[in-house]
Amino acid sequence: MSKEIIGSGFQFPLGVNAQGGFALTDERAEVEQAIGLVLMTSPGERVMRPSFGCRLQELLFQPNDGQTAAMAERYVEDALGMWEPRIIVQTVTAVPDEDSDGRLNIHIEYELKATNDRRSLVHPFYVIPEE
């Protein structure tokens, strides 16, 4: 039942399988790749769907601090709530990476609606560090 609802699709980025066709994802990777696609697309990038995406790229030149982290959390929650209907976002926490001046780690905890399966992932977002 969950396989029918979650489904499978093309691997992102596009790849080729052993038979020379398009590589497909399994149901777990499908949702994770869809989340990544939403977060890596800026609104306005898709001509036929101009509001699709997440506003994270607006933070590219912001300092890697608590205010930027709070804005990133809001942008991710808004975008996933709008563009990924297969999940319920539980929490989004953005934390500046201790080992990298320019990386903001965005921790996303979510639940698949079809199976009530709780999952989490970390999406790295890179800002241009101040000089």
If you had to describe this structure to a student in words, what would you say it looks like?
The protein is an alpha+beta fold and 131 residues long. 28% of the residues lie in helices and 22% in strands. The protein is built from three helices and three strands. The chain has a three-stranded antiparallel beta sheet, with helices on one face. A hairpin with a 6-residue loop joins β1 and β2.
Judged by helices, strands and strand pairing, the structural class is alpha+beta
Rg of Cα set: 16 Å
- Gap between N and C termini, in Å? 53 Å
The strand line-up of the biggest sheet is 1-2-3
**Weakly predicted, low-confidence segments:** none
Rough shape? globular
Number of strands: 3
Question: How many separate helices?
Answer: 3
The largest sheet, given as strand count, sense and whether it forms a barrel, is:
3 strands, antiparallel
Helix content: 25-40%
User: What portion of residues belong to β-strands?
Assistant: 15-25%
Arithmetic mean of pLDDT: 86
From N to C, what is the helix and strand string?
A: HHHEEE
Features:
3 helices, globular, alpha+beta, three-stranded antiparallel β-sheet, 131 residues
Short description:
With 131 residues, the chain is of the alpha+beta class.
Task: Please give the structural blueprint.
Blueprint lengths: L1 H5 L20 H14 L25 H18 L3 E10 L6 E10 L5 E9 L5
Antiparallel strand pairs: 1-2, 2-3
